[in-house]
Structure formats: C-alpha cells, structure tokens
Design brief:
Blueprint lengths: L4 H22 L5 H23 L10 E5 L2 E5 L1
Antiparallel strand pairs: 1-2
Helix pairs in contact: 1-2
Length: 77
C-alpha cells in the first residue's frame, strides 16, 4: 500500500498532541508562564494538522508579547 504524506504529517501531529495531553495531565492547573507555553504548543499542533491540507504557506509571525489581564490573554504584535 502506498503511503500518504498527509497521513504521515497528521500522525506526527497526533504524537505531539498526545505528549501535550500527557503534560497537561501532570499539571492540571499550570501557572501563567507554563500555561502560555502549553498554549503555544497547542497552536503549533493545530497549525501542523491544517498545514498538509493547505500546502506550503509562510509561517505566521509570532507575537511580540502575550499579556494576561483579568484572566484573558491578548497578543501584542
């Protein structure tokens, strides 16, 4: 059977998602700094899942800074 490059890419993203879920189970209520790092990993995984269907696209610019106020986080570009 011929391998599907899309399936291979999704499988790698699936492995990353499994590791993220594992890390979240170890720290169910992470502090703000850890929370942001976990959120960044989740965003990267989501991008990796969508990317094979959209083809090559330039990477999205990273925010200059993340600010959390009153339980809400916003990005500053």
């Amino acid at each position: 059977m011929k391998r599907s490059p899309i399936a291979d890419q999704l499988e790698r993203a699936s492995d990353q998602l499994d590791r993220l879920i594992h890390d979240l189970r170890l720290t169910p209520h992470p502090h703000a700094d850890r929370y942001h790092a976990l959120e960044e990993r989740a965003q990267a995984i989501a991008s990796a899942i969508v990317a094979p269907f959209r083809g090559e696209q330039p990477p999205v610019a990273q925010p200059h800074r993340l600010v959390t106020e009153n339980g809400r986080t916003r990005a500053i570009w």
